[in-house]
Amino acid sequence: MKELKKVSWRSPSNIALVKYWGKHGNQLPSNPSISFTLDKCYSETSLSVSEKDAKDKDVQLKFYFDKKENLAFRIKILSFFEGIAKDFPFLSKYALAIHSTNSFPHSSGIASSASAMSALALCLCDMEAKLKSDKNKTDNDKFLKKASYYARIGSGSASRSVYPVASLWGETAGVKASSDEYAIPFEDEVHKSFKKYQNSILIASSAEKKVSSRVGHALMKTNPFAKARFKQANQNMAEMISALRSGDLEKFGTITETEAMTLHALMMCSSPNFMLMNPSTVAMITKIKTFREASKLPLYFTLDAGPNIHLLYPENIKSKVIPFIQSELSEYCENGRIIWDQIGKGPTAIK
Question: CA Rg, the chain, in Å?
Answer without folding.
Answer: 20
